[in-house]
Amino acid sequence: MEHRYLGHSGLRISEVTYGNWLTHGSQVENDVATQCVRAALDAGITSFDTADVYANTVAESVLGEALKGERRESLEIFTKVYWATGPKGPNDSGLSRKHVMESINASLQRLGTDYVDLYQAHRYDTRTPLEETMQAFADVVRQGKALYIGVSEWTAEQITAGAAMAKELGFQLISSQPQYSMLWRVIEDEVVPASREAGVSQIVWSPIAQGVLTGKYLPGQPLPAGSRATDEKGGASTISRFLADETLEAVQQLRPVAESVNLTMSQLAVAWVLQNDNVASAIVGASRPEQVHENVGAVGVRLPDEVMTAIDEALDGVVERDPGLTARNAPQDRPT
């Protein structure tokens, strides 16, 4: 495993982060989830990403239990706040001071730790003044409950404003967690340049496009049984945008490209996002331990220029690049 610095901080995280968005507490049983975490640790992964909303708080509990007994100082644990959890009352979502302060305490209890290394705003809250949110994060850091602060799916303008305010308040905003893959490149034109200027790195989710970039989904063929595309608990809705036959046909053109550099298609996808020097880590999930070991095979790989060109040529016409999608996909009101 190799590690990269996160933003302008001194924190180093593993190039592959293990995430449990659609798996722990939802898609897989707890014993399998624990096996996947053990596989991540065995592979040298030290960074683990979760959120209070995943499986309505259960994912945090499962991850905390799976990491029990590990040396805390050897891990980087990330979680998030924004979406509604629990009974979903009027203050059970958003980035108000009340919700942030209550949520960090609940997350720490579920994770079984005194602090998280990175606490992230899961979305931007248009209903709460940015000053209120950032002051709450500053207090969370000063109380020692989080070491660093990050955001997820914020626009370039929001990242710039948030980083500037964090600096004024005496703490660091060091990370952005956006969707990023060969097929979804909307952060490249605006978010990445703004992040570089602000001293923020990307920790990207869905680098394999919900599994589409593994090549297992074939154009004109039934969806594989037991795959994320058949999961009605959330997986099917998130992957649907990538299942058009035109996209699946283009993805199949990547198979010989991957073979030319002795990588599997999923390894090629993870290696591709890690080529971006503003990306500190790629988040991968797993429903089986062997998936973890496969994805870690992308660590340290540098793709030649001709391979990067071949990827662009194969996917020409099916790549989403519109930077406006970050804002358009964001909630405009608090969830209830």
From TrEMBL:
Signal peptide: none annotated. Residues 16-315 form the NADP-dependent oxidoreductase domain. Keywords: NADP, Oxidoreductase. The keyword Oxidoreductase applies. InterPro entries: AKR, K_chnl_volt-dep_bsu_KCNAB-rel, NAD(P)_OxRdtase_dom_sf, NADP_OxRdtase_dom. Pfam families: Aldo_ket_red. The keyword Oxidoreductase applies. PANTHER family: HYPERKINETIC, ISOFORM M (PTHR43150). Belongs to the shaker potassium channel beta subunit family. This is Aldo/keto reductase family protein.
